[in-house]
Amino acid sequence: MTERNETVAARPTAEYRALDAAHHIHPFSDMGALNRAGSRVIVKADGVYLWDSDGNKIIDGMAGLWCVNVGYGRKELADAAYRQIQELPFY
């Protein structure tokens, strides 16, 4: 996981924005305006905060569309998931 984060940080924001414009559709967005301004590239999360590739710290008010309402980086939840996956990963 650390390797991936270092790789992400090493790429320039413009490269991610170009990939986003070429390969991703943002529902409910004006794609022309979004492509002119450039999308926000999120590179880190902790608690209720996100950081973009320009170093801006922002509150994730949407909580990942309600998927992370307990916050990011919750080690106890990762540990619980790890233990469960070892016991019964799929049924």
From TrEMBL:
<dbReference type="GO" id="GO:0009448">
    <property type="term" value="P:gamma-aminobutyric acid metabolic process"/>
</dbReference>
<dbReference type="InterPro" id="IPR005814">
    <property type="entry name" value="Aminotrans_3"/>
</dbReference>
<dbReference type="GO" id="GO:0004015">
    <property type="term" value="F:adenosylmethionine-8-amino-7-oxononanoate transaminase activity"/>
</dbReference>
<dbReference type="GO" id="GO:0009102">
    <property type="term" value="P:biotin biosynthetic process"/>
</dbReference>
<dbReference type="GO" id="GO:0030170">
    <property type="term" value="F:pyridoxal phosphate binding"/>
</dbReference>
<dbReference type="InterPro" id="IPR015422">
    <property type="entry name" value="PyrdxlP-dep_Trfase_small"/>
</dbReference>
<keyword id="KW-0032">Aminotransferase</keyword>
<protein>
    <submittedName>
        <fullName>Aminotransferase class III-fold pyridoxal phosphate-dependent enzyme</fullName>
    </submittedName>
</protein>
<dbReference type="Pfam" id="PF00202">
    <property type="entry name" value="Aminotran_3"/>
</dbReference>
<dbReference type="InterPro" id="IPR015424">
    <property type="entry name" value="PyrdxlP-dep_Trfase"/>
</dbReference>
<keyword id="KW-0808">Transferase</keyword>
